From TrEMBL:
Pfam families: Flavin_Reduct
GO molecular function: oxidoreductase activity
Keywords, comma-separated and alphabetical: Oxidoreductase
Gene3D superfamilies recorded: Electron Transport, Fmn-binding Protein, Chain A
Designated name of the protein: Flavin reductase family protein
InterPro entries, alphabetized: Flavin_Rdtase-like_dom (IPR002563), NADH-dep_flavin_reductase (IPR050268), Split_barrel_FMN-bd (IPR012349)
Alphabetical list of SMART domains matching this protein: Flavin_Reduct
Domain Flavin reductase like residues, every copy: 21-164
EC id: 1.-.-.-
Amino acid sequence: MTASPDLGTRTGTPALLRSVFRHHAAGVAVITAAGERPVGFTATSLSSVAAEPPLVSFGVGASASSWPVIAEAEHVGIHILAEHQHELAATFARSGADRFGPSTDWSTGPEGVPLLGGVVAWLVCRVVARIPAGDHRIVIGQVVAGEPSEGGRPLVYHQGRFTALRD
């Protein structure tokens, strides 16, 4: 038997959304783009959109420091983080952090996109749409290059923290 919703359910608010989504485990990705300086941010909103053509989407806050570059970028990098990359995820999530400093393993990849080292897998995508969605923008990209995993387990975000899958 499944639990039925409480008829005293709270109204739709940002707090309710955050509270409910703390129960939703999500893969952790870092999105990067090239600008005057490279930019990047941690995202848990990555989603496969279509296989033909190969499309993905992610959300980015319109007030995020990386948004001005993402808003103009022709290409973005998408990196699926490995379970041991907690600190990298935290660095790219932290406001004001030196995300591409000496402690970050990265190089310039296809289309000039900054690519992070040691990740489970990566894609370079051509941006095909930017859709306003409340205080965020949904970015849709078409895959143009990538490297699938040769093993390794992904980092996961659940209950407000980075964690690993358990068998």
